[in-house]
Design brief:
Radius of gyration: 20 Å
Strand content: 35-45%
Number of helices: 5
Largest sheet: 12 strands, mixed
Distance between the termini: 40 Å
Strand order of the largest sheet: 8-9-10-11-12-2-3-4-5-6-7-14
Order of helices and strands: HEEEEHHEEEEEEEEEEHH
Structural class: alpha+beta
Oligomer: single chain
Amino acid sequence: VMRIKLFFLLMLSAQLCFSQRILRDDSSNRPARLTKVELLDKSEFQCVYLHVIYDPELDFRKKVYEILEVGTTYSKYENYGAYQLDSLINARMRAGEIITAGQHSAFFSQFRPTLEYLIKDLKNAKLTMYDRVFVDNFIYEEPVPAIAWKLQPDTQEVCGYVCHKATAEFRGRTWTAWYSDIPLNNGPWKFGNLPGLILKVEDDKKEHRFEAIGFKQDKIDFGYKKRSYMKTTREKFNKALWDYKNRSWKMVEGTEYQPKNPDGSAVEVSREKMFYNPIELE
């Protein structure tokens, strides 16, 4: 029997309290322009992961919450803030409420969603990544990676489940995964290809760690957002994202996005790199 963790209950409570406050305080009644969603599947199992990222150049560590939604033919992996935002808006719309621009802006600030997510076509073993570089939306497809794991005899308890160890080399990093007996060939991000759901995975440099922190079983529709996407390849997208994170000023200087002083002169743009450490190194 799947257990509903306290994590979800606390998150739901925070959503409801915040949304009620916004209803009282918001003064903008203009209806929000919401992005349409093309539905793909209905998830019946969700797993939240804590993704800890370390940037050795900045010597800084960041924690990000992400969620895996698993349906019959598709799964979706995305930022948990984006999932919270969509869940709250959908609940209000089902109740017949109109989301105002002011409410949407406030919700966005509260949950701080990021726009990237990936969808796995489970039957055709195809993966589609939706992501953004600066103001441009991109999409690329690739086969679901058939990671060549080596099964190990070690066990470890993760989020209440006894998990089994596996190791692999994948796109420039050496990974150790801990997979459960939950009968799902899936895991965080692009990971999978093990006998059970991956609940924890970490690279040997300890620069990326994904670890499950909560589960629930709800019937939730999910799909992809119908934006204007530019098709690309994984390699080209990763190169563009690296350039942006390390040389963002090149995309701003001399453009309409460069900040201006009151006298109209351009504000000098910082040339410091952003926090970034790619999961894939090749």
